[in-house]
Structures are given as C-alpha cells and as structure tokens.
Amino acid sequence: MQTTFALGTIDWVIILIYFVFVLGIGWALRKYMKNATAFLEAGRSLPAWVTGLAFISANLGALEVIGMAASGAKYGMMTVHFYWIGAIPAMIFLAIFMMPFYYGSKARSVPEYLKLRFDEKTRGFNAFAFAIMTVFSSGISMYALALLAEVILPLNIDWNILGLRIGEFDFYLLISAIIVLVYMVLGGLTSAIYNEVLQFFLIVIGFLPLVIIGLVDLGGWEGLKSQLPEGMIHSWKYAGNAESNPMGVGWFGVIMGLGFVLSFGYWCTNFLVVQRAMAAGSMSAARKTPLVGAFPKMFLPLLVIVPGMIAIALTNMGELTLPLKEGTMNTDYDKVIPVLLMNYMPVGVLGLGLTALMASFMSGMAGNVSAFNTVFTYDIYQSYLVPNKPDLHYLKVGRWTTVVGVLVSILTAYVARSFNNVMDFLQLIFAFINAPLFAAFLLGMFWKRTTGHGAFWGLIGGTVAAAIHHGLTLPANATTGVKGGYIGILRQYPSEMAQNFWTAIFAFSFALVITLVVTMLTRKIKTDDQLRGLVYSLTPKVVDDSKHWYQKPEFVAVIVAAIALTLTLIFW
Amino acid sequence: MGLDIKIPIGLMFSILGVILTILGIVTHGDAEMYAKSLGHNINLWSGIFMIAFGAFMLLTSTLVRKKKLGYDS
Q1: A224, A301, A497, A509 — which has fewest CB within 10 A?
Q2: What is the pTM of this model?
Q3: A4 CB burial (10 A radius; 0-12, 13-18, 19+)
Q4: CA of B2: which chain A residue's CA is closest?
C-alpha cells in the first residue's frame, strides 16, 4: 500500500504560499510592536470574532486534530463528549462568570490573577508549572509535525552540515521552528492569534472536501452508520455503564470527570486559551470570545471525528487499509487523516489539506510559545528576577524569551523522539497539576473568605491526591508503571480514559476540601477593598455595552447552550 | 492592531482559489486524476468557493470600508 504522498508541483506551491503569508503577517505587524503590552498582550485591542476563532484554534493543534480523528476511529460518536459536554458548558461559564474578573482585574496573565487574588506562592507555583508545560507542549507539537512530515513527505534529504547529519526529521523540525520563531519574534501574540485565525479557515476549507467526498462515497450519514457497529454511532445511548461502550467510561465519569473537572480546568484556567480572550479590545469582546468560539467548536466534530469514522467504515468494507504502528501489530490510528487525504484528494486539494494539517501543527507550537512568553516575562522575569525596569526592557526580554522558548522546544522534540517514556511521564505530572486548579479558582472567585494559604495547599494537596489515585489504580490490559498501579492496585478501570476522568474527580474533590479546611484555619489577609474586582460578591455586576439585546453575552450564551443541547439529542 | 487580519486572509484564499480554479479548468475531464474524488472536479469547486470566501473577506475589510467612508489611512 502507498504510504507516501505523490505530491504535484501545485501542492508544493500551495504550501509555499501559506508560508509566505504566515511570515508576511509577522512582517506587517512588526512596526506595531512598540511596547511590551503590544507584544505580549496584543495591545488588548482585537475584535471578538478574531479572539474567538483564535480561542478554539489555539486548542486545535497537532495533538487535537490527530488525536480526535484517532479517537473517532476507535470510539466513534462518543468522542463528541470532548466537544459538546467537554467544552461548551465551560466556555459559557468562562464568558458569563469568569471573564469579568480576568479582564476587569487588569491582570496580564492567569498566574498574575492568582497573585492579586491570593498570594505570591500560589502565583509562583502556577507560573513555573505552566511555563514548563507550555514549552513541552510546543516541543511535542514540533515532534509530531516532523514525524508525520518525515513519513508522508519524503524529500530524500541526507545532508552533512559541519559533521551533523541532517535527515528529513531534522529538516522539517528546523524549518517549522524557524518559521514559527520568525513570525513570533516579529509580531508577538498578535502574530500567533492572526495565524490561528488563518489556520482555522484553512482547516475548515481544507478538510471539508475530504469529509464531503467521504460521506458521498459511503452514501451519506445513513450509509456511514450502516457500516459501523451500534456502539460507535451513539454519544450517550451506551454511556449507562462503562462496560457496555467502546470508550469504557460511564455517564458519571463523563459528566463529572470530563464535563466538569477536566473541561472547566482546561477552558477556564489554562492561560493558553484564556490569553486569547484577554487580548480582546473591550470587556464585552472579552466575554464574547469564548461564545464566538463555541459556534464553530460545536461543529468541529464533523471535520475531525467524522473522518476517523469514515476511515473505519471504509476499512470494514475492505476498501481501505490503515497502516500498522511501526514494529507492532496494532493499527496506527494517528494516520487516519493523512491516509484519507491520500485516498480521496487529487493533486491540488491534496496540497490544501496538507497545508491545513501543517498549519494546525505550527500554530499549536506558536500558541504555546506565545503563552510561555507572557508568563515567563511577567510572572517569572519581572516578578522574581529583574523587577522595576522600563517597559522597553520587558519588550526586549519578551522577544528573547521567544527565541529561548523555541530553542527549548526543539530540544524537547528530540527528547520526545529518543525517550517516549519521559514524555508520557511528564504529561502525567502536568495532568496531576492541572486537575485541582479549577477548585482554587472556583472558591477564590465566589467565596471572598478563601485565603492564599488555602488555595496553595489545596493545589498541592490535589496534585498529590491525583498522583496517589493514579498510583493505586490501573486500566484494563495495562502493566504497572507509567499507566498507574505503582503504589499497589486497589481498583481496575475498564479503560485509561475512565482512569483519567476519575483521577481528575479525586484531585478536584481533595483540592476543594483542603482549600476549605485550610481557609477556615488561616486568617484572611486581603481586605475586601483589595479583593474588589477579583471576587464575585465584591465586584459590581458588569453592564454590557452592546447596542442590541441579541448581542449581549447572556443571550448569545443561551443560543449556544440550545444548539449544543439540540446536537446532543440528535446524535444521542 | 493596525493590520486588519481580513486582508491577508482574503488575499491568501483568493490566490489559492485562483490557482485551484485554473488547475480545475485545465484538468477538467481528466478521469484518471479525479478517480480518487469519485469523478468530481473537486479542485474547481474548492477553487470557486475559496475565491468567493477570499473576496468576501477583502470586501468587508478596512481596505474597502475606509475608502467608502472617505477617509485616507
């Protein structure tokens, strides 16, 4: 079977044009980068439709596109839980309840909000954990791009430069790193956001022909369903108990673990996405950012999950063979999108589809680098290393941080290539740190009594609880080690996903209880006056300045919720 | 920010759209090439759609709006 692309000149021309525009956007923005605010916060000047598309695009990186298509192939329609229940409610909550504090407090980052609301140590913990996490995520994105490009776009490169052997993997890694570096140094956060918007349209226009032709081939949605097992074509019908559905998760795990803890923890507190909303030009635009993003987000399953289902239907019909993972007998679901592009797309639209894929990898890197820049410059450099310098100094530091961020990402990509286990291990630790975060925000924003000590020990305790739960449980068919069970096996989960959801539930509950208890035992240091604008009960209700009632965030939120609910019922 | 993102988006999709449309016209009827896409001239259709999208972006960008309102940037 053919595993590489027969690319025509036209396909390469399309890819090149994309690169020219990406760099051109950075170049056109360079003259506006006059101060640190412009570079690191996009000058807080962007319209809601731009920040809204960037909000979901920043999350639509390599791991998301490849991972969701793979999940669609493995589990079918249940994957939509990551969208309709696992994103939309959190995005609405962020828009209506949390954005007024993030945007109104004038904090420049999520860690800085923690500093204003709680104390220095809570900010420090979050800033360091986040900075390390973003650099690693950016590195993993680069690694995934180079790995995929090496397999599907062979150029037969084997150069010897100053004694270093440069193969295809190295070539694609360096090219993508250099392009991201150049446009980020030139245009900062605005460059990242603009390229995310460009990437969003490329993904839609590049993948839509693939989905349409695939569905036409199978005889439409009904034809697709007829080729798949019953468990793969329903989202909720088989969620009654974990044993009866392909994902191995039950409804409680889905709603509490994914829909509440993981989803709210990610969409409401992860600076990578929150930063996009904070770059908006007004409070109203900031609050509308997640809502504008929610509309396309609800329909993304069509572009990323349905291709996975199409690939499996074709495989069941014997019309397609998915490649095996190198050196194993397991199907490599990560190649679903490239294999389908190869199957259906002639020269021309093939280049377009590949460009869309590449765009998603590159903006995945750039998004992480832009969040890293801001947190490092403001929350680490300015707070702990060199405070009280003129603004231009921090602009310069922001630029150099970009260079360092990209260099460390390249290093990480090589680490990921050589030691797969190291990456699994790191991602596990990040998951432990992230899980309790929403507990601290929830209590901090809605209970003015919550103290800094409470939040800090809640975060630490929740992280430890996550690690202990993970160490005491094991998913079915896994061996003790990075998958869990390293303390002893108290409980077996039907799947790794179920274990992840429950780890999150435990971490959140412990963080909540510990924060409550420690808060009651410690004195409230911040006065009500200091907490104005940071806590719900002490902040005057925001009056939205939209001209028409149908432009108000509350009304838009109701529409978003209604559409998500309708989709859920249709695809029950 | 001084640059309206609609301008580069509009330009890029217009250019890519023109390329795909021309490719679609030149290769129209090439049964072997379009066997993959079940006989549909998918380059032509995508190209036309992209030109329309690109034009919409450019027409609603500040490039055109400013001229209409009569200011000079």
Answers
A1: A509
A2: 0.91
A3: exposed
A4: A32
Burial class (CB in 10 A: 0-12, 13-18, 19+), A392: exposed
The answer to whether A346 contacts B11, with C-beta atoms less than 8 Å apart, is no
State which residues form the domain around B49.
6-67
A172 and A149 Cβ atoms separated by less than 8 Å: yes
Q: Is B72 among the domain residues? A: no
Domain assignment present for residue B41? The answer is yes
Q: Mark which residues 32-51 of A lie under 8 Å from B by CB.
A: 32, 38, 42-43, 45-46, 50
Provide the ipTM: 0.91
Looking at CA atoms only, how far is residue B6 from chain A in angstroms? 9
* Closest CA–CA distance from residue B34 to any residue of chain A (Å): 6
Does the pLDDT at position A524 exceed 50?
A: yes
Whether residue B1 lies inside any domain: the answer is no
> Is B43 within 8 Å of B69 (Cβ atoms)?
no
Dist. CA A323–CA A325, nearest whole Å: 7
Q: Could you tell me the two tokens for A532? A: 């104005």
Interface membership of A23 toward B (CB under 8 Å): no
Phi first, then psi, for residue A492 (nearest 5°) are: -105, 130
Give the A:B interface size as CB pairs under 8 Å. Answer: 92
Q: Under an 8 A CB cutoff, do B53 and A18 touch?
A: no
Domains recognised in chain A with CATH numbers: 9-418+546-570 (1.20.1730.10), 433-540 (no CATH)
Question: pLDDT tens, A461-472?
Answer: 999 999 999 888
Nearest chain B CA: its distance from A107 CA (Å): 20
pLDDT in the model for residue B72: 43
Q: Is A174 exposed, middle or buried (0-12, 13-18, 19+ CB in 10 A)?
A: middle
**Each residue of A374-415: pLDDT tens digit?**
999 999 999 899 888 888 899 999 999 999 999 999 998 888
How far apart are alpha carbons A177 and A361 in whole angstroms?
Answer: 11
Domain count for chain B, please give it. Answer: 1
Terminal CA-CA length for chain A: 37
**Percentage of residues in chain A with pLDDT exceeding 90?**
40
Cβ contacts of A47 on chain B, cutoff 8 Å: none
Please tell me the predicted confidence (pLDDT) of residue A5: 64
Partner B contacted by A100 (CB < 8 A) = no
Task: Write down the pLDDT at residue B69.
Answer: 56
Query: Are the beta carbons of A459 and A122 closer than 8 angstroms?
Result: yes
Q: Do A514 and A462 form a contact (C-beta atoms < 8 A)?
A: yes
Question: For residue A370, what pLDDT is reported?
Answer: 93
Structure confidence at residue A239 (pLDDT): 73
Cβ of residue B13 closer than 8 Å to a chain A Cβ: yes
Q: Does A423 touch chain B (CB under 8 A)?
A: no
Residue B73 maps to a domain: no
Other CB atoms closer than 10 Å to residue A70's CB: what's the count? 22
Residues 465-524 of A with CB under 8 A from B: none
